[in-house]
Specification:
By secondary structure, this protein is an alpha+beta fold. 21% of the residues lie in helices and 33% in strands. It has helices at 9-14, 34-43, 63-70, 119-129, 154-162, 204-216, 224-233, 267-274, and strands at 4-5, 18-22, 25-30, 46-49, 54-59, 83-89, 95-103, 109-114, 136-139, 144-150, 175-180, 183-188, 197-203, 220-222, 280-287, 298-300, 306-315, 322-329, 338-343, 346-353. The strands form four sheets. Strands 11-12-13-10-4-14 form a six-stranded mixed β-sheet, sandwiched between helices. A six-stranded antiparallel barrel has the order 15-18-17-16-19-20. α2 (34-43) packs across α7 (224-233). The protein is globular.
Amino acid sequence: MSELKTCLYDSHVALGAKMSPFAGFIMPIQYAGIVQEHLAVRQHVGMFDVSHMGEIFVEGPDAEAFVNHIFTNEIRGFEPGKVLYGMMCYENGGTVDDLLVYREFEKDHFLLVVNAANIDKDFDWIKEQVKGFNCTVRNESPVWGQIAVQGPEAEKTVIDVLGYKEAASLGFYTFCDVEYKGKRLILSRTGYTGEDGFELYTTIENTIEIWDRLLKAGVQPCGLGCRDTLRFEAGLPLYGDELSPEISPVMAGLGMFCKYEKDFIGKEALLDQKAGNLEKKLVGIEIFDKAIPRAGYPVELEDGTEVGVVTTGYHSISLGRSICFALVRKEVSALDTPLSVRIRKKVFPGKVIKKRFYQTNYKK
């Protein structure tokens, strides 16, 4: 099957981006370079084409009850204009996907934003679960474009370049409906970088025009390379690496997004894991060397016993340290536990540290 292209593909090619397959799409990996793009987001502002993400709409009298049934977080009681992060799980606690849920301003309407690689799988699974609920589910992913504007200057950029003064009043994980050329635009104070930022959802045509306006204003286009280094430093998981059908939210340390006071698919399995019945946990590890711990490298004890595997690793651009996420045996997951990573034929010692490697100064 050939890879799909986002609506901004021609712009990426014209800008000389390095293109590569990702989640079924041909996506830009870098433009000026991963380090330059990473630092633009940390220090100023950058923008990402995230039009490959999926938009699934749920609406109808039972929409709230249904979304609450498939979503680990609690959506009852949160107002229109709010966004929640959480997971959808299988009965055994494995992760279907992690996603954002938007409570829309129209009664009984919700937007589910899912990972690009999982759109078809998620939509099929959601349609299977909706039986017996009085609501409809629509996959509108092909008709939406999305741009993420991220960094400490993101608010100023959205206001000055695009004219959306509403950005100043949006709190973290809230959104508003505005218009661009008479068409709906969802302006959301969310992101995947650990910095302040906004995600703009609108029509394909408007996405292309907004991207061009931001380019002309000098905003640095950023590829998926630095999107990964940024989210990793901020301790944010990537589906397929830190979450999967085999890695539950509890294993990944995301139990705070699971509200056990309500019923949801996978609850009993997750409660069992929460009580201690799990074999592995996701941890952060710092390596006492400049060597880079890549995904798939084994994690070992001092005696050479293999106890886990690296899921994501980098020599951190912001911190100047070699760090990684690793899925390890529960009994070696405590902070400061000595662990080593085998990189090819050499072993590099390190220790378990908190997974939130980088702390932003952003407050809103």
